[in-house]
Every structure is written in C-alpha cells, then in structure tokens.
Here is the input.
Amino acid sequence: MEELKAAPKNFIEEFIEQDIEQKGLSHIQTRFPPEPNGYLHIGHAKALFVDFSMAEKFGGKCNLRFDDTNPTKEDVEYVDAIKYDIHWLGFDWDQLRFGSEYFDTCYELAVKLIKKGVAYVDDLTKDEMREYRGTLTEPGKNSPWRERSVEENLDLFTRMKNGEFPDGSRTLRARIDMASPNINLRDPALYRILHIPHHQTGDKWCIYPMYDFAHPIQDAIEGITHSLCSLEYEAHRPLYDWVVEQCEFEHKPRQIEFARLNLTNTIMSKRYLRRLVEEGYVSGWDDPRMPTLCGLRRRGYTAEAIKDFLVRAGVAKADSVVDTAMLEHCLREDLNAHAYRMMAVLDPIKVVIENWPEDRFEEVEIENLPGSPEAGTHTVRFGRELYIEREDFSYDPPKKYFRLKPEGEVRLKGAYIVKCERWETDETGRVTTVYCTYDPATKSGECERKVKGTLHWLCAPDAVPAEFRLYEPLMEDADEDDARDFIERLNPASLCVQRGFVESALAEAAPGDRFQFMRVGYFCADLDHKKEAPVFNRAVGLKDSFKVN
Here is the structure.
C-alpha cells in the first residue's frame, strides 16, 4: 500500500500504545468484519481503513472475516464485491475467515453456558420478549421459562439444532440480569431458529448464533488484540466482555469504539440503500450517485482520494457530520495532479471562421498535463467550423464578460485569436451559429498579443457525439426534526444528462479512465462507454468550496 499522508495521533493509537507498554503485547491483530448482505460504502471504508491502518502502523496483521451469521440476506455476490473493494483501496488481509467457520464452536460454547447455568431456552415470542425487556427507565422482568433446569435446556437446545421447532418459536438466551441499567445485559438472545440454507454451510444448520454472541468468540479464537468497531457498539461492550469471560477464553480481546462516518447529503443505512436499488430509484448498487465504493469508483473517484479523505476526516470519539465538500476536494486534488487535459463541449453552438478556407485544417498542440512536460502533448485539428460551449457566447453580455461577444475577441486554446462578427438565431431567439474571423498572426506560442478570454473548442468535422452524465447529491439535507421518509428527500435533479461532443481520441478511452475536460470539470468514462457511443460521468467540478485549514 502506498504511504499515506501523516495524520495526528488518534485515541485508538494511544490505547494500543498503552496496551503494548502495560500488557507487553508482542503483536497487534485486528479484523475487518463486514456482513455480506450488500456492497461496501464510504462509511465501511472508514471502518476498514481504521482496522487495516492500525495493524499496519504497529507492524501487525488484519484479518478479513465475513460476519455471515444471518443467512436471510447474505450472498456470495457481496462476498466477492467486498474482497474486490478492499483490494481496490490498496489493502490486503492476513487471514480470510467466515463467521460460519465457527458455528460448531459457537454451538459447543452455547452448550457450555447452559451447563454453567448462565443460558436457557426461552419460549417467549419476539413481541413478548420486547415487552418483558423493559425500557431505559424501567427494569425488565424475568421470563417464566428462565428457571428451566440445565437438563431441560440441554434437551430443548439439542432439539432446536435438530430442526424440531419452527422459526421464532424458541430462543437461547443468556441469563444475566433483567434489571441491569444496560438494556443489552437483560438476558440477550444468543441463538435463534432460522430454517434457511446458508451460502457457506448449506442445510447443516437451522439455528444461528446472534452477532453479540458469535463476534467475541471469533475475535478470541483468532487472537484479535483490538476489536475496533463503531460507537453504536459501546453499550454492547459489557456483553462482549461477558461472553469472553463466560466462555473462559484465555485470550481476551479489547473492544474500542470510534465514531461512524456521516456525510452531508448522504444516506448510508444499508437498509435504505437496498431500498433505493430494489425500488428502482437508482440504476443499481454502482449507480454513481450512491455512496457505495463501486458507485464512487464508477463516478470517477480514486482510491487515493478516498484514503486522503479518511485521513483528513480523522478518528473521533463522538459522532459528527463531515461536509461532502471535503471528499470532493480530495478527489479534485488527486485528479488535478494526474488527469490529462482534454477538450469536450457539453452544450454546443457552432462557430464558423469566415476567413478560414473550407478545406484547410491545421494541427495544434495541447499539453496533456500542465506543469508536467514528461506527460507530453497531443494534437487536435483546427478548421473552419468549430464547436464552443453555449455559455461562452453572449450577444447581450453582462459587465466583465470575458468570453465571446459582439466585436469581442477571445483566444481559442492552442490556436488563434478570433473576433465575433455576427450571429444567427432560430425562431425562438436561440443562437445557432456564431460567425467569426481569425487573426493569422496570433497563433499560440508565436504571438505576444493578449486577450482576456481563452475558450476550449472542438473541430466540428472531428468532434465525436457523446453523452455526459452530470451528478448532484442524491439526497437533500434535512434538519434533525425532519420527519419525512427519506424517499421524499431524494433530489429530483441528482442526474442531468447532456449530449455534446468530445475530442476524437476520447472515443478510445476505456471505462474508468479519468480526464479533466478543460474549463468544465473532471470526468470519468462510464461502464456504458463504447467507442461508437462515448459516455462520461462528471466526477467533480472544477470549483472547490472546501476551505483547507
């Protein structure tokens, strides 16, 4: 992995350093445990970045472990996608594990807890369990099945495993304290019945361990020293420690929580993202408006920009919201340094150079990357008929309009100074053609005469028709008290499709290739891009609203 920009030491690093010093740890072992029920998004990227980078910083290792304890929505498709995204970001794991590998061990440990008298089989329904659980201000009450004997619990749990009972009819619960001020310790569920085939274990199991039971077991078995997770699991830490203690593991991982990544104008609930996909509000998980890594990648984001953003966003103990402008700034910085400059006209009007011969063409040279001579140049043809952006001409211009206007002069990038002589409009008053003359003595690189405006352009006979997909935030930001369904907050202008032209060389671009279209923005060739039908996504505009401290 490429070395990342230096960042201030965060509290997780301080904890790990303390553990190394006080506990004499000889190595650091972390893990990234995604559930394979969807695609990774930018929030997951923060989690995996923390997991992998902490291991790397301290010379340790990080496992990839798929949390596949709930087969209802898990799929191999998501497993493969997650592995791809991790590698794309520049990370690699030590061991590849699946939570399902530990099902036998989890079952044996559940039996152990029953024999110790700290787990029991409960017949309460889901709704009844919720009623018995109490509230944040009122204690829960014991289940009428809480005092079953060890023998009866062992028999019922075995029969649960053997498939004798329907889904939801019985649950294995920990016997802890129904009056605990921590609601997660009020006899939490350890196992539930699910007669659903598993993508790894097939029909072997019809009972599956709950995350809060399985996760600490997996961490302890793998020798995880620091179980790094989001802040929502802080209240679950006593249960995590209880499971490790009651299962009598010699190795005791330390759970450390950090704030999740929240972005303005962005939904990151996997449940909501799934709804966007399944109900057709977006084209798929990789829609460029989605916060998924595959969506960001399709839009034109680079792994380097995302990692730079994660470094800048930092690791905090308290939740906060980061402005998406920071993410865009990081991409803009990366692409500015690496993206070749090309010309594209998204909303074209024709320009005719009246004093240029009809059958004459001249090649002009355009630098690929300003300030980097080693990047070389490319040539484009200049001729009588050109295209420029519609907004680059006005027959009634405002003050300080330094583009093409009546009797006004501009330089065409890499070519000549031209002067507007007249123009034509259609019946609606819309400009169709601008007629100009050029000054033969003003070729770029051979003339010292200056004009205030420089425009990009395309030679009309060479210009290739192209589709441009312009993206805005998918979600409208809302106040905390906004009670609307998130679907009602979808931005109707999140996608605008324009049809214009690009340099002929851009037809040869491969999907994923990124460019700066001069004076327009940074664009990426879409997965739909074909030589005969080029398609480009706007990754980010040229203007930067993020203020660097």
Q: What stands out?
A: The radius of gyration is 31 Å. The chain has a mean pLDDT of 94.
